[in-house]
Every structure is written in structure tokens, then in C-alpha cells.
């Protein structure tokens, strides 16, 4: 069986009526993007400004989905001021992926029931096609179509979200036509702007976002959890403004970051963090470092266990793995405790006479840090042999 959990609901793949409006729209736009766009280019050529606007509108709309629909509204991983919320709602209209309220409702369902054939709207358990786009083309009876957005009472109280939801189709269709048309008129390249900044940009950004539901549940590594099919994938992170660290995201969905190391390619994280320095965003949530480290070690332990279970000396290996793992967890606890004590002492306005105590805390912290680093090396050396 694949890593994706199957709930043996084979008939569910077949039932459900086709949504013709979506089939025609996605079919025609895709066809135009792969035929008309290259044909026009070969026949008449494109001006560089057309591609500049195409790329600009793609980045703006996909960042609105990642920073807005996903991290701000679906997960409430940070807070944003009204200006940024308005801008993200506007960009969400250009992305043409339904309203923030609708998108978030689906997405909360996805996290809650990930990989469940019926309850996950774009479950990877039903294969690439279904999780990529099939779920948009076919109505399935899982309560998504007559819902009252009960999963999002918080969003129902937000004026910007509800305004966007109410006027979504007028706004998004209007903007997707008006923005490239006005740009085309302004630059005197009407048709090429319609094709590139309108059609091609939309199809391109649609499918890249859809890859997070499909490819990011199929292709990549699972360092933080193997309980679901979500993967970390650098290439997808680059293509989707940081959304490709999907294994981490499914484990720690409240974190405003998807790529947690400073060098992980996650522009949405960089935007959110930078905007917090000027007060546009605030209350950025991050998962506690010890929980992240522990999840990684636990996943490695499980992988090693699984891979060695059939060996004749499995019991002996298991014992060794457990010993090293237990030591690692103990060192982690010591280190994070010492770190917490040190940080608290830095915050507190300590009197001069307890400076000695402060020095002791720093010493403790440094010492436990070294011990943990050493144990991490031992652990990795052992676990990597088997995992
Ligand atoms: Zn997912
Ligand atoms: Zn999510």
C-alpha cells in the first residue's frame, strides 16, 4: 500500500456529478495558455513589459494566497492590519481561487481530515489528478457545497473577508479582465497583455498552487511526521513562494513559517517577518523549538524501527536506538530549560548582587548546548545507519 492512507471507499471516486462550468473554464484557459500564447509569441513576438507584468501579477496573487488565504485566514498564524488584509483580499480575487472564506473552510477541512477519502476535499489518497484539479471539476457529496462555513466563525466576523466573499465573483472576474485590459491599453499591447498577464499568468499560478495539494503530498521528504502524506520539497517551495515545506506545515500548522531555517526559501515568511518590524503584522506564531526537534528525532526513530524490524538482531538495534533517543530527549529538556532560564534572566531587571547567578545561567546554557550538540551527532550517526 502507498504511504497515503486508503479508507477503501472506492465507489466514492465515481459518484458525484461533473461541474461543467469549471470543466469548461479550466479546460479552455489551459488550452489557450498552451496554444494561443506560444502561437502569438512566434507570430508577433512579446514586449518585455508584458512578461514583467505577467510575472508581477503572478507573484502578487500567489503571495496573497500564501500569506493571506493560507497563513493569515486559514491558520491565523499571525495578525495583519486592515491595509494588508485589504491588499491580500484584493490579490486573492486576482488569483481566482474562490473567496478567502470558502478557501479557508476547505483548507481547515483538509488539515483536520488529511488523506481521508471522503472528508479531505483534496485528499491525496485519491491520486494525483483528484488532489490537483479533479476535486474542483466534480461535485462530491461531502457537505462542502451547502455549508454555512461553520468551520470559520472567526472569519465570518471579519468585515474584509465577508465583503470579499459577498462580491467575490464580480470582483474577481472584473479584475481578471480589467487589470490586463487596462495595462494592455496603457502599453499599447492589448492582446499580448490579455494573453500573458491575463490567461497565461492565471493558468500558471493556478497549477502551481494546485501542486501543493497534489505533488506536495506525493513528492519529497517527510522529516517531521509520517502520519500523513505531506512532503517537504524545495523545488515546490521555490515555485510557490515557500509553500513547499508541506510536511513541516502539516505537523505545525499554526507556525507562520513553512520553511523554518533562515535559508529555507520562504518569501511569505520573509514578508510577514519584515512587515512585523513596521507594525503591519503582529503576534507571529512559531512552534516551540524543542517540539520541532523532538518531532524530527521521533520520526527518525520510527523510520529506523521500521527499516530494521526484519533484521535478525532487530531487538539489539532497537535497544541501542532507544537508549540514544532517550538520552537525546533528556539533553533537549536540559538545554531548553537552561535556555528559558537564561532568557528570562535577561528580561528581568536583575540586581547587581545576583549577577553571579546570571553568569551561572549563561554557563549552564552553554554547557547544555554543547552536550546537546554532541548527543545530536551521536544520535544522527546511529539513526542514519538504519533509517
Ligand atoms: Zn496539505
Ligand atoms: Zn495549511
From TrEMBL:
Q: Name one Pfam family in it.
A: FA_desaturase
Task: Provide the transmembrane region boundaries.
Answer: 18-39, 51-70, 167-187
Q: What membrane topology does the UniProt entry give?
A: Multi-pass membrane protein
**Domain Fatty acid desaturase: start-end pairs:** 51-272
- Name the Gene Ontology molecular function terms of this record: oxidoreductase activity, acting on paired donors, with oxidation of a pair of donors resulting in the reduction of molecular oxygen to two molecules of water
Q: Where in the cell is it found?
A: Membrane
Q: Which UniProt keywords apply?
A: Fatty acid biosynthesis, Fatty acid metabolism, Iron, Lipid biosynthesis, Lipid metabolism, Membrane, Oxidoreductase, Transmembrane, Transmembrane helix
- Where the protein is mainly located, per its record? membrane
Q: Name one GO cellular component term.
A: membrane
Q: Which GO terms describe its biological process?
A: fatty acid biosynthetic process
- InterPro entries in the record, alphabetically? Acyl-CoA_DS, FA_desaturase_dom
Signal sequence extent: none
**UniProt similarity note:** Belongs to the fatty acid desaturase type 2 family.
What's the name of the protein? Acyl-CoA desaturase
- Per the UniProt entry, what species is this protein from, by scientific name? Kangiella sediminilitoris
Which taxonomic lineage does the organism of this UniProt entry have?
Bacteria, Pseudomonadati, Pseudomonadota, Gammaproteobacteria, Kangiellales
Amino acid at each position: 500500500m502507498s504511504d497515503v492512507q486508503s479508507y477503501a471507499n472506492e465507489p466514492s471516486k465515481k459518484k458525484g456529478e461533473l461541474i461543467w462550468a469549471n470543466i469548461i473554464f479550466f479546460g479552455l484557459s489551459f488550452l489557450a495558455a498552451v496554444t494561443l500564447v506560444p502561437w502569438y509569441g512566434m507570430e508577433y513576438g512579446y514586449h518585455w513589459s508584458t512578461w514583467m507584468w505577467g510575472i508581477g501579477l503572478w507573484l502578487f496573487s500567489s503571495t496573497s494566497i500564501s500569506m493571506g488565504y493560507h497563513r493569515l485566514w486559514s491558520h491565523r498564524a499571525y495578525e495583519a492590519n486592515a491595509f494588508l488584509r485589504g491588499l491580500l483580499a484584493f490579490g486573492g480575487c486576482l488569483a481566482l481561487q474562490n473567496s478567502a472564506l470558502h478557501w479557508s473552510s476547505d483548507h481547515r477541512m483538509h488539515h483536520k481530515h488529511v488523506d481521508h477519502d471522503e472528508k479531505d476535499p483534496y485528499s491525496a489518497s485519491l491520486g494525483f489528478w483528484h488532489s490537483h484539479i479533479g476535486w474542483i471539476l466534480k461535485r462530491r457529496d461531502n457537505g462542502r457545497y451547502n455549508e454555512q462555513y461553520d468551520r470559520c466563525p472567526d472569519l465570518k466576523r471579519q468585515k474584509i473577508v465577508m465583503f470579499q466573499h459577498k462580491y467575490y465573483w464580480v470582483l474577481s472576474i472584473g479584475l481578471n479582465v480589467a487589470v490586463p485590459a487596462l495595462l494592455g491599453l496603457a502599453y499599447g499591447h492589448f492582446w499580448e497583455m490579455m494573453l500573458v498577464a491575463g490567461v497565461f499568468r492565471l493558468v500558471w499560478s493556478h497549477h502551481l498552487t494546485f501542486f501543493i495539494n497534489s505533488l506536495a503530498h506525493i513528492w519529497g521528504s517527510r522529516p517531521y511526521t509520517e502520519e500523513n502524506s505531506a512532503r517537504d520539497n524545495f523545488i515546490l517551495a521555490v515555485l510557490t513562494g515557500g509553500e513547499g515545506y508541506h510536511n513541516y506545515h502539516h505537523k505545525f500548522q499554526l507556525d507562520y513559517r513553512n520553511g523554518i531555517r533562515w535559508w529555507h526559501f520562504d518569501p511569505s515568511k520573509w514578508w510577514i517577518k519584515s512587515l512585523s518590524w513596521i507594525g503591519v503584522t503582529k503576534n507571529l506564531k512559531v512552534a516551540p523549538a524543542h517540539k520541532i526537534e523532538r518531532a524530527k528525532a521521533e520520526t527518525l526513530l520510527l523510520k529506523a524501527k521500521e527499516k530494521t524490524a526484519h533484521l535478525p538482531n532487530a531487538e539489539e538495534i532497537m535497544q541501542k536506538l532507544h537508549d540514544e533517543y532517550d538520552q537525546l530527549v533528556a539533553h533537549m529538556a536540559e538545554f531548553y530549560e537552561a535556555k528559558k532560564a537564561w532568557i528570562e534572566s535577561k528580561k528581568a531587571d536583575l540586581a547587581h548582587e545576583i549577577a553571579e547567578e546570571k553568569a551561572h545561567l549563561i554557563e549552564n546554557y552553554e554547557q547544555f548546548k554543547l552536550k546537546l550538540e554532541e548527543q545530536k551527532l551521536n544520535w544522527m550517526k546511529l539513526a542514519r545507519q538504519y533509517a
